[in-house]
Prior knowledge:
With 92 residues, chain A is α+β, with helices and mostly antiparallel strands.
Amino acid sequence: MIVRILGEGQIEVPADSLHELNELDEALAHAVEKGDETGFRSCLADLVNRVREVGEPVAADHLGPSEYIIPGADAELDDVRSLLSEEGLIPG
Amino acid sequence: MGLMKRFSDVMKAKTSKLLDKAEDPRETLDYSYEKQLEMVQKVRRGLADVATSRKRLELQQAQLKASGDKLEGQARQAVAAGKEDLAREALNRRAGIQSQLDGIDAQRAQLQAEEDKLTVALQRLQAKVEAFRTKKETIKATYTAAEAQTKIGEAVSGISEEMGDVGLAIQRAEDKTATMQARAGAVDELLASGALEDVTAEPGGDIQAQLDALSAGSSVDAELAKMKAELGSGPPAPKEIGGGGEESK
């Protein structure tokens, strides 16, 4: 399956990593809901690093959507909130 | 639900709106391609803007550095001449310059990071746009409108996602540049006023107030003591050491 790290591009991740990534993702979502800035930073770093570790970058000329999308490692809590709001990810 | 899925859902919702617009899905291909070319141009312009801003900061760094060196020289002269107040004033101003320099360096590093990211993003986008162009022609030549639907959906949603990602990177770079511009404008005014350079210029006024606020007072005392100690080791003949007042204009 393909995961996009925003600002970095797409990464092909083996399907058997999904469970582990989901757990990291849940922790991240929890930190966002609580507005826990410190927790958000460390959870996001864990998730992004793990995706990089288990995955391989997808060829630049590949044309296909990603199954999952995660914020870039340097994203702010506010960025993530506004991305999840109605405005969405694609400007315009 | 975790974030990974929510993010991709938001993205898919946007893409399906785009696909619904065209009656013949093959028209979507041309429409999307146009948008892609526009995005490539936008990223190129954004990249040029960031580079220009970074160069402006580098120029300011050089100017401020020169002003700081000059003030240090003035402080030494003043100490040598026994004018402690003037030396203190010069060191205060130099401390102000140093804090400006620290801020500018952090901003320059941020802009450099944005520039690097955008450069990579542009390469990736260009590779995808080229792949899309090839695929677009194949799809239009080979498939009927009905058959083309699935193929188009995948190609368009793939590239739209990339465009969304790049669009965010551009937005972010623009925000950083705007913040930087405001600060750079203030520094330019300070530089143009000449107040940073010459301690014998009229004291007081807004510039002085700004510099006082910026200055790190405690380090000034330490430096003053250090300079006194350095100069104190020589013979007590201020005029010989400082070269007199010839440079105090």
